[in-house]
Amino acid sequence: MAENRVTESGLMISRVFDAPRELVFKAWTEPERLAQWWGPKGYELKIAKLDLRPGGMFLGSQRSPEGHVMWGKFVYQEIVAPEKLVFIQSFSDEEGNTIRAPFSGTWPLEVINHLTLTEDLGKTTLTLKGGPYNAADEERVTFEGMRPHVQQGFVGTFDQLDAFLAKT
């Protein structure tokens, strides 16, 4: 039976950016900024919707260099500008309906992410904690097995955020 919880073995990533917290928050919450850095390197993000409010949704598609398109969404749970975002992330179709990940039939349908931003002397520390949400045991096991790859993916995405912030 699925429980409404995050697995204790979720992931946590922390990174310091040489940018003020307000700017880092805007990079996560303004479509024209988010489209310039989110996702794997070489992928193009097209944002169909970004409704920044609790219960609101980000919906977008990523196109790989080979032309493969995947849709995904965030459903915002909590927003405290400019210090906190909590959102449930899922793969989706273009209408925003949650679907299974294209790479695994047992990847969690929902992953919750808690993003916090703290600023010290003009630099922002971003901390991301996340893991399966409303997940079956099999989904939690799949997530745990893929955790090193998920962390590596976030490192690459945060490299792109760092480069974006350096240009801004």
Automatic annotation (TrEMBL):
Record InterPro entries: ASHA1/2-like_C (IPR013538), START-like_dom_sf (IPR023393)
Stretches assigned to the Activator of Hsp90 ATPase homologue 1/2-like C-terminal domain: 18-165
SUPFAM superfamilies according to UniProt: Bet v1-like (SSF55961)
One Pfam family matching this protein: AHSA1
Family as reported in the entry's similarity comment: Belongs to the AHA1 family.
Protein name as it appears in the record: SRPBCC domain-containing protein
Organism per entry: Paenibacillus spongiae
